[in-house]
Amino acid sequence: MKNKAYTSSFASIYDDVMGTVPYQVWYDYLKEILDYYQLEARKVLDLACGTGNMSLLFARDNYQVTGVDRSSGMLEVAKQKAREEELEINFIEADLCSFQLEEKFDLAISLFDSLNYILQLEDLKKVFKNVFDSLRDGGIFIFDVNTLSRLMSIEPGTTILNGEDYTCIWEDIVNEEKKLWQVKLKIYHKDTGEYHEEFHQEKGYKIADLKGALKEAEFEDIAVFNAYTFTEATDNDNRIYFVALKNRKRSAERPVLRSVKNLKWGIKRFINGL
Ligand SMILES: C[S@@+](CC[C@H](N)C(=O)[O-])C[C@H]1O[C@@H](n2cnc3c(N)ncnc32)[C@H](O)[C@@H]1O
């Protein structure tokens, strides 16, 4: 099968397939991290923005947003959604391994394990360098990944997703030797009779390797949190968030504030079933 992911076919059903993804909770968590780091952000760079779900959340709150993705199909959906809400978002089609922007941003984000799609550590180092160059001094880069242990524990098998106007056959495969989670998608569009196939691959990395790659890109202060907590992540967690600062050291550790945020997010996690 051709190694092509995020064609227009999948882009057209992506938001429906991902209908239960808690983007609003992710957004609230990002805002909580910004508060913890005392960062006043105005300009946000959403890397691998996809159909723009995070970009739109920031833009609705009057942030100045630029979204980058290599899939023209995903960007088309994102642009359409922004037009419908009359939100001005700058969407750019580019590969994260090679993008360059003149503008400097306060905050760069990349969510929903998009960076697991970068299959070689050497390529990830290029991505990190490009992100570093896009941030202003004192700026922050926040991204999430699926851990290697999470990817390797996915149950192989096939799921059928039935939408109003599509059927999607989703096959999970785990390649332990290559540390890859692979997904074969077969998409039937009931309205047009079209049929498409896609192949997705996510690579699992160890925290130490990602930290090393961030340091090589000159990020200074790097924290890794278990998702929706302010607790240091381990390789045994599922989704983890990296927070890396450009030319800025975090202010002194604030254990009381950290405990308060952990308590608040413990309740949020419970309420949202996360
Ligand atoms: C799981 S989707 C996440 C999209 C979006 N961040 C969200 O939260 O819905 C992964 C996205 O990463 C993009 N992507 C993967 N590799 C990329 C690369 N090398 N350069 C740019 N975009 C990439 C895909 O096109 C896709 O839109």
Keywords:
single chain, alpha/beta, N-terminal domain of TfIIb, seven-stranded mixed beta sheet, 11 strands, 30% strand
The end-to-end distance, rounded to whole angstroms, is: 34 Å
Total DSSP E strands: 11
SSE class: alpha/beta
CATH superfamily of the largest domain: Vaccinia Virus protein VP39
Total helices: the number is 8
Structurally, the number of domains stands at 2
**Strand residues, percent:** 25-35%
Question: Quick one: overall form?
Answer: globular
Arithmetic mean pLDDT = 95
What top-tier CATH class of the largest domain fits best? Alpha Beta
Helix percentage? 25-40%
Strand and helix order: HHEHEHEEHEHEEEEHEEH
User: Cofactors and ligands present?
Assistant: S-adenosylmethionine
Low-confidence stretches: none
> Biggest sheet: strands side by side, in what order?
3-2-1-4-5-11-10
Under CATH, the topology of the largest domain can be stated as Rossmann fold
Main sheet: strands, sense, barrel? 7 strands, mixed
Gross CATH architecture of the largest domain: 3-Layer(aba) Sandwich
- Roughly how many Å is the radius of gyration? 18 Å
